[in-house]
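Researcher: Here's the sequence for the chain we discussed earlier.
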Amino acid sequence: MAVEVGAIIDGKITGIIEYGAFIDIGEGQTGMVHISEVAPTYVTSIRDHLAMGQEVRVKVLNVTAEGKVSLSIKKAEDSPEAVPRAEAPRPRPPARRGAPNVWQGQRAASQAGPQTFEDMMSRFKQTSEDKISTLRRGGDTRYGGASRRGKK
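Model: Thanks. This is the structure I predict for it:
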């Protein structure tokens, strides 16, 4: 019998390594559960959650062409087959979206209509030049002001 993606299978842990565990899923097939698929919380040591010979329920995530089987313990617990019908979560309604948030730019007091990109860029360049000239006059050493070492 071939293993199908999405199937929930009971298996037995046959090996534990630092980044995962090998699970015997029957009929001579073995799959691997990566450490990130062991529990819904962060797992620092896989041995804190799993033990050799332990029976586990797993969900088949992927089967490669070479026959490697990727498994998940935490997704088997979250699957609809594992959760009783009365406890199954209800789907959320889609979020409502309003009008798109479009940047309008700041308007000068003298301008009544919308600004073009060129107007905003021109104003930005003028403001930047004014700030740089103020810094240079103020004696900032980074811009060649009068407070350099050796000059008084």
